[in-house]
Structure formats: C-alpha cells, structure tokens
C-alpha cells in the first residue's frame, strides 16, 4: 500500500488508497440506506425504526466517514 503525504497551509495528512473490500462495503451501505429511506418515505417503517436500523447499518458496514454523517435523516429530503 502506497501512502502519499499531502500538505497545505493548515494541514498535513496521508492519502491511503481505498481497498476493493472497503469500496464494496461503502456501496452496500449506500444501497441499504436507499432501501431504508424508501421504506420510511412510504410509511413502511417509523422514524425511530429508521434511526435504529441506520445505526445497525453503520455498525455492520463501517462506512469511511461515519463520524461526519448526521445521526438523523432529514425527512424533507426524502
């Protein structure tokens, strides 16, 4: 794995390539959340169920930027 250091005026970080498995996991999370959002939009699940399943999805799929994702869904965006 090749790491490349990147620097800017106020930051320094290392770029690391994303593995095929991580990309597969990201895509699986994305698809699972789309299905979940659709279920909420069509009143097949409640908002509390959506939140609970979202947490389970994040634990199962471990998306890369989970720390940046909101805890709740904005219903207006569905």
- Kindly report how far apart the N and C termini lie: 39 Å
Q: Give the tally of β-strands.
A: 2
The strand order across the widest sheet is 1-2
Rg computed from alpha carbons, rounded to a whole number of angstroms: 16 Å
Helix content: 40-55%
- Summarize the main sheet: 2 strands, antiparallel
* Low-pLDDT residue intervals, each spanning 5 or more residues: none
Shape: elongated
Order of helices and strands: EEHH
Tally of separate helices: 2
Structure description:
α1 runs antiparallel to α2 (47-61). β1 and β2 (12-15) form a beta hairpin. The mean pLDDT is 82. With 78 residues, the chain is mainly alpha-helical. It has one domain. The relative contact order is 0.14. The chain has 2 helices and 2 strands; from the N terminus they run ββαα. A two-stranded antiparallel sheet has the order 1-2. Helix content is 47%, strand content 10%. Residues 19-69 form the SHOCT-like domain. It comes from Youngiibacter fragilis 232.1. This is SHOCT-like domain-containing protein. It holds the Pfam family SHOCT_2.
């Amino acid at each position: 794995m090749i790491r490349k250091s990147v620097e800017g005026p106020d930051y320094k970080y290392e770029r690391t390539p994303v593995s095929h498995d991580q990309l597969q996991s990201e895509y699986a999370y994305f698809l699972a959340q789309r299905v979940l959002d659709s279920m909420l939009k069509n009143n097949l699940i409640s908002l509390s169920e959506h939140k609970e399943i979202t947490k389970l999805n994040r634990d199962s799929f471990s998306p890369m930027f989970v720390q940046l994702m909101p805890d709740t869904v904005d219903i207006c965006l569905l």
